[in-house]
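1st attempt posting a full record on here, be nice pls
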Amino acid sequence: MTSGQVRTPRWQTRTVRLKRRLARWIVLALVAIFTRTRIQGQNKLDELDGKVIVASNHLGRLDAFYGILLIKRTNLIMVVAEKYRDHPVFRVMVEQLDLLWLERFGADLGTLKEVLRRLDKGGILLIAPEGTRSTTEALLEGKPGVAYLASKSGAPVVPAVVFGTEDRVVKAAFRRRRRPKVNVIVGEPFMIPPLPKTGRDVFLRQQTDEIMAQIAVLLPEKYRGVYREHPRVGELLSYEVSN
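the predicted structure (as tokens):
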């Protein structure tokens, strides 16, 4: 590289883009063979250009692979919990596709800054606001990280849900030599206001509730968890009925 040239970030190199494209085709084939999957609203993602944040629930280990399936663009940004560093499949996936490790306990400022840099370059982020896989098989309380990223980046948020991927359900289906039935639904994009100079904690809590409510209304009631009785969920459901 000559003086003055800007080094292309690894996640934007042709090699990584080709690997990501190949990974998506492999996931497509595996999903078609081993599951019965229905995807609704794929066009809502396909029509969006530039920076985007896809906020999804997280029920099982298969969810990450559905993220790769759902997002056709090669500039995918995905964070994977550090607890999977010793898992051979996830470790190889993160390394080969140049995804990001996230330390769940404590503020991982380095990863957050890198996510914002990649969003600024037009990337599409897939992330679970809950921050972890749900042990209740329903929505947990959302953490403020996604609201922070959306307010700082100015990227539209697209709510998305996947259900039928609960580890217990998938294992039971495979034991019976049946293909688990999985549903993926993509909602309408919406914007989070810019981060204010004061009252940030209250703001982030409110916007996190908005993101989680938008996710909750896409799910069957049994999956809504701690947001089942949330007033904003009721408002959104009433709006859908009236329209």
